[in-house]
Amino acid sequence: MVLAAGLGERLRPLTALRAKPAMPMLNRPLIQWTLERLARSGVSEVMVNLHHLPESVVAAVGDGRRLGLRVRYSREPTLLGTGGGPRRVRSFFDDAPFLLVNGDVLFGFDLGRLVERHRASGARATLALKRRRGPGAYSAITVGRDGRVRRIGGAGQPGGYLFTGVHVLDPRLLERLPRGRASDTVRDLYAPMLARGEAVHGARVRGRWLDIGSPSLYLEAHLESLSGGRSRVALGAAVARGAALRRSAVGAGARVDEGARVTDSVIWPGGVVEAGARLRRVIVTEGARARTGERLSDVVVLPRGRRSPLDR
């Protein structure tokens, strides 16, 4: 199951236009990268929950056939959270362990290997973990030498690991959560399991993991992925010969005019950079335009001439 129902409040104003999983990442909807990785790992059926701007996600995924999957949707009139969303569709999972994946991260680790490690651990839940680089916004998770999670602490704690938002669990655990009410898998399921001495496994994974929780992190995820100063221009984008791009992504239907200079930026499908504009660390959204000769840095360009600081 891919969780795609969140409000994306930290990512505003971008998520006023599209749900976070439907936002372009390297010129493709973010959720497509996740679904393709699931398909390559042998997954054939996926449930996607929806709440905020649901049609933007449906437009990006459809029935999943072009991605090699069968995709179904669970529309949540009331947001049910990371626990309540899967609880609502408990019957979809039968009784075999299933992958539960946040739809708002970009990752590159081996999901098949993660499932194997879950089965070998004997635990009923396995969390994919990455080493923390120091105190920060993510809760610190402590893991013993045997791989069992010992503690899920608060943000700001030093060391330990962070939870990537990718986990494998026994679907029968969902029956411990209240039906039809919002709940959280960490707070309402895993924390009580630890308190009772039940095994929750922590699997340390290798490969990239990029948080896309704010406009600046969204931009940084692009820049980390565009190595060597190279840009990525989608088929159907119009970039004038006299325009200059450096480490930027330009979506389908976007336009970059003569003499424009675009550096470390993201141009959404349908975005326009007019002649002579200078952009550095700028996100131009669909239906928006950077005007002729305009110089912009660290901003989000929105439709109807609006501008928003990259970090509010």
End-to-end span in angstroms?
Answer: 32 Å
Q: Mean pLDDT, rounded to whole units?
A: 92
Roughly how many Å is the radius of gyration? 21 Å
Uncertain stretches of 5 or more adjacent residues: none
Instruction: Write the CATH fold name of the largest domain.
Output: Spore Coat Polysaccharide Biosynthesis Protein SpsA, Chain A
What share of residues are in beta strands?
Answer: 25-35%
Q: How many helix segments?
A: 6
Q: Tell me the total number of β-strands.
A: 25
CATH class label of the largest domain = Alpha Beta
Shape: elongated
Characterize the largest beta sheet: strand count, sense, and whether it forms a barrel: 8 strands, mixed
Write the CATH architecture name of the largest domain: Alpha-Beta Complex
Q: What count of structural domains? A: 2
CATH superfamily of the largest domain: Spore Coat Polysaccharide Biosynthesis Protein SpsA, Chain A
Fraction in helix:
10-25%
Q: Based on helices, strands and strand pairing, what is the structural class?
A: alpha/beta
Structure, described:
The chain has 312 residues and is an alpha/beta fold. It folds into two domains: 2-213, Alpha-Beta Complex (Spore Coat Polysaccharide Biosynthesis Protein SpsA, Chain A), CATH 3.90.550.10; 216-309, UDP N-Acetylglucosamine Acyltransferase, domain 1, CATH 2.160.10.20. Helices cover 19% and strands 30% of the residues. It is built from six helices and 25 strands. The chain has helices at residues 30-40, 54-61, 81-88, 111-121, 185-195, 215-225, and strands spanning 2-3, 24-25, 28-29, 45-50, 70-75, 98-102, 105-107, 125-131, 141-143, 149-152, 161-169, 201-204, 209-211, 232-233, 238-239, 244-246, 249-250, 255-256, 261-263, 266-267, 272-273, 278-284, 289-290, 295-301, 307-309. The strands form six sheets. Strands 14, 16, 17, 19, 20, 22, 24 and 25 form an eight-stranded mixed β-sheet that branches. α3 packs across α5 (185-195). The protein is elongated and about 65 Å long.
